Amino acid sequence: MLNKFGKIIQFHRKQAGITQKQLADLAGIGKTAVFNLEKGNSNFRIETLIKICKILNITIDFQSPLMEEWRKHES
User: Which of 4, 38, 54, 58 could form a Cys-Cys staple with 10, CB 3.0–4.6 A?
Assistant: First the structure.
């Protein structure tokens, strides 16, 4: 699963035409964090993933059979 995240991040970064260093600078994180995430390393902070996704315009969506019920409950 983590490797899939990394491949998605890498694909979007390359499509944006930016380097790992540029992405790291834009997200306000270290280049090593981008490298490790793209390589599927499991040692990353969720805040790091969120920052990267914001820069690359990637949304994170939770999916489960109970999500519709949860949304009704939260309203």
Answer: 38
